[in-house]
């Protein structure tokens, strides 16, 4: 599981700096950096705050952080297509829920 890289990928796709994501998820920039480099384990509550700040469901983040051996019988082609489509969706602007 490479959850740190998944967070970094989503952060970049959303156009957020580490500083802004740390602020939105109520953690320090240094802690976020350590998470993104997989040098610190992340708590579920911190993961929830990061997902909320990124506007990304936790399941999507976990999917993006999964390795091939964690997918079981899913083909590499299907995995790649799912990841590609997910990243395209992450590139779209976040919808304002007040509209």
From TrEMBL:
> Which GO MF term does the entry hold, naming one?
DNA-binding transcription factor activity
A Pfam family of the record is HTH_3
Annotated Gene Ontology cellular components are: cytosol
Question: Would you say which domain of life the source belongs to?
Answer: Bacteria
Record-annotated membrane-spanning stretches: none
What are the UniProt keywords, alphabetically? DNA-binding
Is Transferase found in the keyword set? Answer: no
What residues does the HTH cro/C1-type domain cover? 7-61
Is Lipid metabolism set as a keyword in this record?
no
**PROSITE patterns found in the cross-reference section:** HTH_CROC1
Q: What is this protein called?
A: HTH cro/C1-type domain-containing protein
The record lists the organism as Oxalobacter paraformigenes
